[in-house]
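User: I'm putting together a teaching handout on how multi-component assemblies are represented. Below are the sequence lines for each component of a complex, exactly as they appear in our records. Could you produce the 3D structure of the whole assembly as structure tokens, so the students can see both representations side by side? Please keep the chain order the same as the input.
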Amino acid sequence: MAYSDKVLDHYNNPRNVGSLDKADPNVGTGMVGAPECGDVMKLQIRVNEETGIIDDAKFKTFGCGSAIASSSLATEWLKGKTVDEALQIKNTEIVNELSLPPVKIHCSVLAEDAIKAAIKDYKTKKGVPVPETVSSHA
Amino acid sequence: MKTPIYLDNHATTRVDPRVLQAMLPYFTEHFGNAASRNHMFGWEAEVAVDKGRQQIADLIGATPKEIIFTSGATESNNLAIKGVAEMYANKGNHIITQATEHKAVLDTCKKLEKHGARVTYLAVKQDGLIDLDQLREAITDKTILVSIMYANNEIGVVQPIAEIGKICKEKGILFHTDAVQACGKIPVNVIADNVDLLSMSAHKMYGPKGVGALYVRRKSPRVQLTAQIDGGGHERGMRSGTLNVTGIVGLGEACALCKSEMAEESVRLRGLRDRLKDKLVSELDEIYINGSMEHRLPNNLNISFAYVEGESLLMGINEIAVSSGSACTSATLEPSYVLKALGVGDEIAHSSIRFGIGRFNTVDDVDYVAERLISVVRKLRELSPLYEMAKEGIDLSKIQWAVD
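Assistant: Of course. Below is the structure of the complete assembly, with chains in the same order as your input.
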């Protein structure tokens, strides 16, 4: 299968690889997927307490090139957004940006799920009630 | 280093230049139809076909009349299994095969099940070998055929064919083996192995695509088949259709080369394979070899690089042609059923790479591949949350993963 240039770029030069301190009260950690399915994404955000803005985001992904690219792109988009803005990121935007083919749409879904899971973890830490999110995947 | 490097010789092989040279005249000056009995063009073609038949028979210890030409091993497998099921329907309707067969055997058996056959799919042990006691226990008075592959196309594991042949002979059951990966790579002898039907293909042994053969035993027992393709009654009525003369010449020459060079070539390929394995094992932690190393083709290696997904690994070494058991690289989006059958867990299948070393590979190829793999695996493990967790001492099997 031929990959888009953007997928190749993220695969070859992944942005924001790494881990933040899970124990930090300002850090939210999302881990989605399962090894037996061939995809596991760990995505973390750190929120600036004063501004409410995500000032750092990191990821680690076990998965195909499109999964790596989707999570790498997600971390780029998360930085500088508020938590509520971050919740607006849709998997379809990732699909469009990376020109993912239909068989790789699940990679973008996983990235959106990882963002939501990280934010949920952050809100739980902060004692904010977390409503059951309604899935909006394309 | 000259790239791309081709290390996917279980999928197909490059045609040996000597095979091509033997074939070329049969496209042009000797283009006759081997079934044309009344002129020299036909006679030339027939002589060429007879020579090919002899060369093929010689490789597997058969006689020329026992060789039926087909379009390839998929057709050979279909003809052997469906042909026996139909011909021997009054004797019984039970077939025994095993879980890691090629789809050409499994799907053929599934088709027969729809038409009333009963099929037993033997499980394999973790080393990829079948359990002979399970085979014995599976045999009933309705069993007409056992079909067990000689060597596996993904993990290269070589089944105990001679023992299986002996069991089948004692019970009076026909024994078919898909020997596509074994023919030309390791010694195969239909007499010593008590094989009644054997499938082979030219393009896995440095011959052309589109031609194969089915060995059909003529003596003790004389095996009969119901033809699956009807027409002019070619090939003793078992497979009609004008013979692919160029292909047959190519298959014959490929067999002759393999026969004369196998002893030397298998030592060289084993050396390259072990060199690759040793380099990877010495440089990388947590890598697992799938299938028995003891009962294995000399040119095969199948390794899982734990915590690294196969397709992302292939993406990092895109100047090297190998294949993966990862779901993302398969048309069905399912991880390799062969690796799953070993019972090693889906994540091992997702992380697997199959290497098939061939006649045209060199020490430099293998060294380059090892070096590139080591560097890409290390890079991807830096990216892998699973590797990080494993290094922290977390038991990944104890985690409750959120599966959709």
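A couple of points students might notice: The longest strand of chain A covers residues 39-47. Chain A is about 40% helix and 20% strand.
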